[in-house]
Amino acid sequence: MSDLRELYQEVILDHNHRPRNQGELPDANARAEGHNPLCGDQLTLFVKVEDGRIADIRFKGCGCAISTASASLMTEAVKGKTVEEVREIFRRFHALVTGEAEGQEFFDEFDSLMALAGVKEFPVRVKCATLAWHTLQQALEGGGVATTE
Amino acid sequence: MLVDSEVVLDVTALRAQFPALAQQVRGKPLAYLDNAATTQKPHQVIEAVARYYQRDNANVHRGVHELSQRATRLYDEARATVAEFLGASRPEEIVFLRGCTEAMNLLAHTLGSRLKPGDEIVLSELEHHSNIVPWQMACERTGAVIRVAPIRDDGTLDLDAYRGLLSERTRVVSILHVSNALGTINPVRSIAAAAHEVGALVVVDGAQSAPHLRIDVRELGVDFYAFSGHKVYGPTGIGALYGRYELLEGLPPFQGGGDMIARVSYSGTTYAKPPARFEAGTPNIAGAVGLAEAIRFVREVGLERIRAWEDRLTELAHQALADVPGLTIHGPKPGAKAGVVSFSLRGAHPHDIGTILDMQGVAIRAGHHCAQPLMERLGVPATARASFGMYNTPEEVQSLVRGLAEVRRVLGL
Ligand SMILES: Cc1ncc(COP(=O)(O)O)c(C=O)c1O
After folding, report:
1. Predicted ipTM?
2. Is residue A149 part of a domain?
3. Among A146, B177, B212, B379, which is least packed by CB within 10 angstroms?
4. What are phi and psi of B246, to 5 degrees?
């Protein structure tokens, strides 16, 4: 059961029960839909980009605890970051949840994202953890629909 | 031995015949409750397939040599076994295919070739994607349209609304017999009778009925009936489509190739009679042999007994799950459905339920069950689903209930 506790840490449960930055963003200038065909999870991301930085970000949609918490944590982690920085954070985050890299590669400021490290023991759940990130990438690349397929 | 006062089924002896059941998963005894997705295979089936490859393997309908004759005989016998299983008039009414999905594609393609703009195909809100998408593709090609018969809140088909959709424009009614997502058993006989009154053809997706109900296609009065071998304790990659012979005879081919022709020349080809017309290329001979063995196995256990046992487990599950706080079961009550228990747990996404149960050796399905329109109708993104087979036990139902307590604990509900 220790793997389960790793997966469903307090931080994850907290962000699942009380997701941050949830809702629509009326003045968003980038948006995208994310879709996980495996479980039917759906997510809409609203992003406001100013001078190459993420000025504000919100998400709407329903999903499992992992995808909801991941979306919530992501919105906190990327706010104020440049598009370039976001790409780099996603690269590291992806390596973290797929078990390709250990945590030390992360900067201290992304500590909260480390809460999702437990996902690496559950390969079928990687798509849940990365759905929001794929959707963000899609939004920054011009919008549309991202799927985890 | 678990002997119930009403239902006698020696489930311990039965389980001993399924090697995959006797394993530990995550350090816990496996409770396999995902039988609507696919069933485990008894020794008898595994051995029939192995024996075929070890002793009788050859191509069918081609060789004069002994092995080819044996393979051909086994393949033909398998067809006869399936015909009998479904109550068909003769073996030639059975087409071997990959499964239900391929059967629906065959029908949507062949029946679909005759559709005209404005023609209507009636489906239901319960359908599996395999009985939706092929018809949508046929509609795109022809301009025909799909009408959807609604269900009531209890997950049963609204028969009056269904009858209201039928008209002289209805060409095909294609509907599942038993819902994979809810277990609902559709009144196929009434559905078929009403469809025939307006001159429509009736196609039935029997993927979930074949493992649980005795089927008699003539008694049901249907034109086409499809099922998949892997859901009736047989191999994957094999299934069958029943079609009334006169109807099959009138259909164009589906795929072209060897075995489906009478004569080929570059000035034109004449097609073989059914069922060969629909079985282009080397068929899944070993699969057909395995499927026939699975049918024999199911018959030996007895479909009535299987149904009664699964009903018992379903009832037990309903009773036990009623005590889990925040849990809602979707679909009809036990007795009015096959062994499927689809549920939601407040505050827990089915995906999380699935993962946490898996850590306790309990295998269930979490998701939309390839029935997204139905999920939308139920107002849920997905459900968790336990589905029973002949070999499940009351103890496994208890493992599910215990597992759900752990789900609530882990998720802090
Ligand atoms: C009701 C129903 N129809 C069709 C299918 C498709 O069967 P198969 O994947 O074997 O072709 C399934 C199984 O997933 C099913 O449950």
Report:
1. 0.90
2. no
3. B379
4. -60, -35
Ligand 1 neighbour B207 (Cβ under 6 A): yes
Of A120, A77, A86, residue with least CA distance to A100: A120
Per-run averaged pLDDT (10 residues), chain B, 413 residues: 61 97 96 98 98 97 90 98 98 98 98 97 98 98 98 97 98 98 98 98 98 97 98 98 98 93 90 96 97 98 95 97 97 95 96 96 94 92 96 98 97 93
CA distance B385 to B43: 27
Which whole-number Å values give the CA distances from B100 to B45, B92, B105, B254, B403, in the listed order? 20, 18, 9, 15, 33
Closest ligand 1 atom to B37 CA? 14
Which secondary-structure segment (H or E) carries A31?
strand A30-36
Q: Does A13 touch chain B (CB under 8 A)?
A: yes
Question: Hey, what CATH topology would domain B46-299 get?
Answer: Aspartate Aminotransferase; domain 2 (3.40.640)
Residue spans in chain B of domains classed CATH 3.90.1150.10: 11-32+302-410
* Residue B242 C-alpha, separation from nearest chain A C-alpha, in angstroms: 31
Specify the pTM.
0.93
B367 and A65 in contact by Cβ < 8 A? no
Asked if residues A33 and A146 have their Cβ atoms less than 8 Å apart, the reply is yes
B11-32+302-410 sits in which CATH class? alpha beta
pLDDT of residue A104: 60
* CA A118 to mean position of chain CA atoms: 15
**Chain A neighbors of B407, CB-CB under 8 A:** none
Pair of tokens at residue B187? 């009144």
